[in-house]
Design brief:
Layout (H helix, E strand, L loop, with lengths): L1 H18 L6 E14 L23 H17 L11 E7 L2 H8 L9 E5 L9 E7 L3 E9 L3 E2 H8 L21 E2 L4 E8 L2 E9 L7 H25 L5 E6 L7 H7 L1 E2 L10 E2 L2 H6 L5 E3 L2 E3 L2 E6 L11 E7 L32 E8 L2
Parallel strand pairs: 1-2, 9-10, 11-12
Antiparallel strand pairs: 1-17, 2-4, 3-4, 5-8, 6-7, 8-9, 10-15, 12-15, 13-14, 16-17
Helix pairs in contact: 2-3, 5-6
């Protein structure tokens, strides 16, 4: 009887407490990745194969076209993730970048200049001279170290292992940069940046894994080697600090379900599957649902991914944690007519578009004190 007497009173107290509870507020940062697709200047670099992207080259790449490309990219970068965070991304990983100069021109665009982006870039041994880089908001992130880590892969060893003979008719862009001395395939380095985001240490790896030139199956060992290197970098960070927060992002030229991501890197699709020191990939579920960042022969895939360490998916929001992920595929980024209707609006000799990839993003959040 006494219990029945107190129940209405307790319900009223609970309702009163909830009605006066303050909603939690969070700090939010957007982390983005975008394949800039051939962000070249108009100057011929004698050390790389960039002749196509000059005023007299195949693309007839003029100053006006270059400036339009910069303006288009700046528009996208300023708006990624704006549905939940109206502020521009704190971090932007990028690839297919010719040199630091094009990044300097990019961050000076009207849409970005007030964001005051810093640049971390290294030249890589890629034969076309295309690199990866990280842009960051100087007032939010303070880098303490950065390094480009080379990917050593050798064509002869891989083809001997698979007992596949190299046919001269199958030579592709990647094959052209194989060293005749040691058969090394020259591809993009992996960029590692460490620094402090609002006082918390964050590690970011930016990737552009070897292409599928020569076929997906033949070239898969190259990307598996890239995934293995990525895992080694993460392992090294975690040995130094078992609680290290790591974000790895990039154009992987593989989907979330391929060996390079699932086995070599060991990424998991569900948070519950991620063990200590593991990696969570929110883009695998999106791929299963038919979403994509790139299309080929009317088939969509998610080559562009952002993954996080187990330390970023814990439920204590007193420090930065992963919240959610997305693909930025607004209508203005989509081809609306012709053979490639519905595809990402890339640029051509007649139209300066954006990229053949859609950008991706995640949010990091932390409860305000």
């Amino acid at each position: 009887m006494r219990i029945l007497f107190w129940i209405p009173f307790l319900i009223l107290c609970f309702a009163f407490t909830n009605s006066h509870a303050q909603p939690k507020k969070y700090i939010i940062h957007t982390v983005a990745f975008y394949n800039f697709e051939n962000l070249f200047d108009t100057i011929d670099d004698p050390e790389t194969f960039d002749e196509e992207w000059t005023p007299t080259g195949l693309q007839r790449w003029t100053i006006d076209k270059y400036q339009k490309k910069l303006s288009n990219l700046a528009r996208v970068l300023a708006e990624i993730g704006s549905s939940e965070n109206t502020d521009a991304p704190t971090f932007i990983g990028g690839c297919e970048i010719e040199n630091r100069n094009v990044l300097e021109d990019l961050v000076k665009q009207p849409q970005l200049i007030e964001k005051d982006y810093g640049i971390i870039h290294f030249d890589s041994p890629d034969k076309r001279g295309i690199d990866v880089a990280l842009l960051y908001r100087k007032n939010k992130f303070k880098p303490t170290s950065s390094i480009n880590i080379p990917l050593y892969i050798y064509k002869k060893e891989i083809y001997r292992k698979e007992e596949i003979k190299i046919n001269p008719q199958d030579i592709t862009d990647d094959d052209l940069q194989v060293s005749p001395k040691n058969y090394r395939v020259y591809t993009r380095d992996q960029l590692l940046v460490t620094g402090f985001l609002d006082g918390e240490e964050i590690n970011i790896i930016v990737n552009h894994w070897p292409s599928r030139s020569g076929g997906e199956k033949k070239s898969s060992p190259f990307r598996e080697a890239a995934g293995t290197l990525n895992r080694k970098i993460i392992d090294s960070l975690q040995r130094i600090n078992p609680k290290a927060k790591v974000i790895t992002m990039g154009d992987l030229n593989d989907g979330p379900y391929n060996k390079s991501v699932k086995i070599a890197l060991g990424a998991k699709a569900k948070k519950a599957e991620v063990k200590e020191f593991g990696i969570y990939n929110p883009f695998e579920e999106m791929a299963k649902n038919g979403m994509g960042t790139i299309a080929y022969r009317d088939a969509w895939d998610i080559f562009d991914q952002i993954m996080v360490s187990e330390t970023l998916i814990q439920t204590d929001y007193s420090s930065f944690r992963y919240w959610k992920a997305g693909i930025y595929n607004k209508p203005f980024l989509i081809q609306n007519s012709g053979q490639y209707k519905g595809y990402p609006l890339r640029h051509s000799t007649t139209e300066i578009g954006f990229s053949d990839h859609f950008p991706v993003y995640i949010y990091l959040i932390k409860e305000k004190k």
